[in-house]
Amino acid sequence: MKNLVAKMTVVGVRPDGARVTLTVEIGRPYEERDAWACPIAIAPLHGKLADIRGTDSFHAVWLACTLALKLLDNLKSEGWRLEYADGTEFPIEDYKASLAPR
C-alpha cells in the first residue's frame, strides 16, 4: 500500500496450530466528494478492503483502525490466538479499550 499512515504485524495462530503472519495497513486518508476515505488492508486474510469513509480525515482513519481491531477480534472469537512474532500474546484488549463506552 502506498502512503502508509500505520502498519502493524500480528501472528494469528489458528485452532489447528497453523501460524499466519497478518499485516494490518492503514493508508493516508484522501478527500472524495463530500467525505474522506481511508485505505485499509489486512493481508493475507482480507487483502485490500474497500476504503473506509468518514466525515473528515480523522474520522476516516479512526474508523479504519476500529475495523482492523474488530476483524482481528473476530479471529479470536473463531478460536485463533493473536501473538507477536516472539510468541508473546498480542494485547488486543488494550487496543480495544479505547473503543468501549465508559
Mean pLDDT over the full residue set: 93
Number of DSSP helices? 2
Residues in helices, as a percent range: 25-40%
Number of domains: 1
Head-to-tail CA distance between termini:
35 Å
The total strand number stands at 8
Q: Could you give the order of the helices and strands?
A: EEEEEEEHEH
Strand order of the largest sheet: 6-5-2-1-8
Shape descriptor: globular
Ranges where pLDDT stays below 50 over 5 or more residues in a row are none
Sheet with the most strands? 5 strands, antiparallel
Structural class of the secondary elements? alpha+beta
Radius of gyration: 14 Å
Strand content: 35-45%
Brief digest:
This protein has 102 residues and is an alpha+beta fold. Helix content is 25%, strand content 37%.
What distinguishing features does this structure have?
three-stranded antiparallel sheet; five-stranded antiparallel sheet; 102 residues; single chain
Fold topology:
Elements: E1 4-13, E2 19-27, E3 30-32, E4 35-38, E5 40-43, E6 47-48, E7 52-54, H1 57-77, E8 81-83, H2 92-96
What does this entry look like structurally?
With 102 residues, the protein is an alpha+beta fold. The chain has one domain. 25% of the residues lie in helices and 37% in strands. The protein has two helices and eight strands; from the N terminus they run βββββββαβα. The strands form two sheets. The protein has a five-stranded antiparallel β-sheet with strand order 6-5-2-1-8, with helices on one face. Strands 3-4-7 form a three-stranded antiparallel β-sheet, with helices on one face. A hairpin with a 3-residue loop joins strand 5 and strand 6. The longest helix is centred in the middle third of the chain and has 21 residues. The protein is globular and about 45 Å long.
